Amino acid sequence: MLEVFGYISALVIGISLGLIGGGGSILAVPVLAYLFLLDAKFATAYSLFVVGFSALVGGIQQHMKGSVDWKTAIVFGIPSIIGVTLVRKFVVPMLPDVMLTIGDFEFTRRMAMFGLFAVLMIPAGISMIREKKDKKERTGETKYNYPLILIEGLLVGGITGLIGAGGGFLIIPALVILANIDMKIAVGTSLIIIAFKSLLGFFLGDAITLTIDWTLLLTFTVASVAGIFIGTYLSNFIDGKKLKKGFGYFIFVMAIFIFYMEFFVKR
Questions:
Q1: What's residue 215's pLDDT?
Q2: Which of 2, 21, 164, 170 could in theory staple to 47 by disulfide, Cβ–Cβ 3.0 to 4.6 A?
Q3: CA distances from 216 to 144, 195, 197, 229 (A)
Q4: Which contacts of 42-46 are long-range, i.e. CB under 8 A and separated by 24 or more positions?
Q5: What does residue 263 show for φ and ψ, rounded to 5 degrees?
Q6: DSSP structure class, residue 26
Q7: What is the pLDDT of residues 122-178, one digit of tens each?
Q8: CA pair distance 156, 229, nearest whole angstrom
Q9: What is the spatial distance between Cα 220 and Cα 131, in angstroms, rounded to a whole number?
Q10: 169-222, pLDDT tens digit by residue?
Q11: How far, rounded to the nearest angstrom, does the alpha carbon of residue 22 sit from its chain's CA centroid?
Q12: Are strands 105-108 and 98-102 parallel, antiparallel or unpaired?
C-alpha cells in the first residue's frame, strides 16, 4: 500500500513540476525515504536520477523555446558535475552509520543527510513564496566571474550530492549575478545544469557503488515524467503562480515533518 502511494506521489511530483515549473522534485527524497522505506544513501541516490531526468525533460522544453544559454550551462555545469560526483563516489560511502555519540543520543549519517535536506528546504520554500518583481531584460554582454563560478559550482554540486536535490534556488541567482544573464534564460539554463550534474553524478558515483533497484527507480521516474506532461497540459487551465505560493508553504510543512521524523521519532 505504501508503494502505491509512493507511485501516486511520483505522479503528483511530476504534475507539480509541469504546473509550477520547478520545485516539485524536492519531494522525491521524502517520498523515497518514507513511502518506499529507503536508506538515506539510496533515497538521495534515486532522487538524483529522478531529479536529473525530470530536469532534462524540462530543459529540452526550454531549449525548444530558445531559453537555454548552453555556454553558461557548460561553464557552470562542469564544476557542479565534479562536485556531485566526488561527493557521491567518495564522501557519502565513507560516512559512518553513527557519526557522533553524546550520552544515549546517536547522531547518525541519516540524521546528517536528512537534517541538511530539511534545512535547505526552507530557502527553497521561500524562493517559491516570494513574489518575483518583473525585471528588465539584461542586454549587456555575458561576462563570467570564473573563480566564483568554480567555487559556486563545486558547492552546489556537493550539496546536490549530499541531499539528492537539484538546487535550482541556488543556481538561478548565481547565474544572474555571476554570468549577467536574464532571469528567464537563467531558469532554462539551470534545468540543463541540474539534469547533467544529477545524472552524471548518479552514473559516475551511485551506479558504481550501490546495487540499484532499476525496476523501482525507472517506474518512479516514468510516473514523474508522465506527471510533467499532465501538469504542462493542466497549466493551460490553472494559474501556476497561485499554486506556487501554496506549494512553498507545503515544503515548509515537509521540512518540519522530516526534522521531526529523524530527530524525535525513535527507530
A1: 94
A2: 164
A3: 41, 20, 22, 21
A4: 42/210, 43/164, 44/92, 44/113, 44/117, 44/162, 44/163, 44/164, 45/88, 45/164, 45/202, 45/205, 45/206, 45/210, 45/212, 46/164, 46/212, 46/216, 46/217, 46/220
A5: -105, -15
A6: G
A7: 887 887 787 665 455 555 566 667 788 888 888 888 888 887 776 776 787 778 777
A8: 28
A9: 32
A10: 678 777 877 777 887 788 888 889 888 888 988 898 888 888 999 999 999 999
A11: 9
A12: antiparallel
Long-range pairs, 207-213, Cβ under 8 A, ≥24: 208/89, 209/88, 209/89, 209/93, 210/41, 210/42, 210/45, 212/45, 212/46
> In one letter, which amino acid is 108?
T
Q: How far apart are CA 78 and CA 11, in angstroms?
A: 31
To the nearest 10 degrees (0 to 180), the angle between helices 2-20 and 240-263 is: 140
- Give the cell for residue 220: 518512479
Give the span between the Cα atoms of 112 and 97, in whole angstroms. 10
